[in-house]
Every structure is written in structure tokens, then in C-alpha cells.
Amino acid sequence: MYWTLELASKMEDAPWPATREELLEWAMRYGLPREIIENLEDLEDEDGDVYERIEDLWPDYPTKEDFFFHEDEY
Q: N or C, which end of the chain has less CB nearby within 10 Å?
């Protein structure tokens, strides 16, 4: 399983919170790239885990705060 910023960004509009199956159905319905569907299929689904946000799938997903420069901090 691998994620890129481009792939993960397509998941921002997913119906969070959602189970693996709900995310798979949503990805297929909206015609998301095959790589995303494969990544979701590779998830280990233990007792219907519920994912709250993209960071649950890809912990290193950069947030918007990662891209902003805070002048007052320097």
C-alpha cells in the first residue's frame, strides 16, 4: 500500500467517518484512480474499523498547517 499527496487529496471528500467497505464503495462510485481502490483493498479490516479521516489511512498526510509560514513565529 502506498499513498501520494495526489492520491490522498482525492480522499478528502470521502464520507468520513467510514468503514473500509464504505470507502471502497464510495471510491468506485466516484471513479477514483485504481491505486486508491487497491490501497483501500489492502487495508486490514478488523471488526469493521471506522476511519475518521485520511490521517487514519495515511498518518503522514500533510495538513494545511504544514504549508503555512507563520511570520510571528520567527
A: C
Q: Give dist(CA 8, CA 56) in Å, integer.
A: 11
What does the chain come to in residues?
74
- Report yes or no on whether pTM surpasses 0.90: no
Residue 48, Ramachandran bin (φ over 0: left; ψ between -120 and 50: alpha; else beta): left
- Secondary structure of the chain in HEC code, one letter for each residue: CCCCHHHHHCCCCCCCCEEHHHHHHHHHHCCCCHHHHHHHHCCCCCCCCEECCHHHHCCCCCCHHHHCCCHHHC
* Phi, psi (degrees; rounded to nearest 5) at 50: -110, 125
Closest CA to 3 of 49, 51, 54, 52: 54
